[in-house]
Design goal:
28% helix; alpha+beta; 4Fe4S_Fe-S-bd; 4 strands; 3 helices; 110 residues; elongated; 4Fe4S_Fe_S_CS; two-stranded antiparallel ribbon
Length: 110
């Protein structure tokens, strides 16, 4: 188990205050997680407290470098992947509706 803090961290100190293991340390290079202390809040909380309070997406990552708060997770804005999926879906719906409708200008009485 090993989380780490990336350079996206703004140094707000919130994670350090809530860590039940006191695993978050600050130094001249910013904040870091002492791997030997961090147990990812297992046995203490359902979710890692550092990530639960962190206001910055991608500031805390797991051992596989996956953000605990990935892009879009805190803003309510869709991620790039979701935007692409929504766009493709809208194109399909538009095409399906277009196939069922008369061509532009047809079927209209002026």
């Amino acid at each position: 188990m090993a989380f780490s803090i990336t350079n996206a961290c703004i140094g707000c100190n919130a994670c350090k205050l809530v860590c039940p293991q006191k695993a978050i340390v600050s130094g001249s290079n910013g904040y870091a997680i002492a791997a030997h202390r961090c147990n990812e809040c297992v046995g203490h909380h359902a979710d890692p407290q550092c990530a639960s309070i962190c206001p910055i997406e991608t500031a805390i990552v797991d051992a596989n470098h996956r953000a605990l708060n990935p892009p879009g997770s805190l803003t309510g804005l869709p991620t790039e992947r979701n935007v692409i999926a929504i766009s493709l879906l809208e194109q399909r719906v538009s095409k399906a509706q277009g196939d069922a409708r008369p061509a532009s200008g047809e079927g209209h009485v002026c």
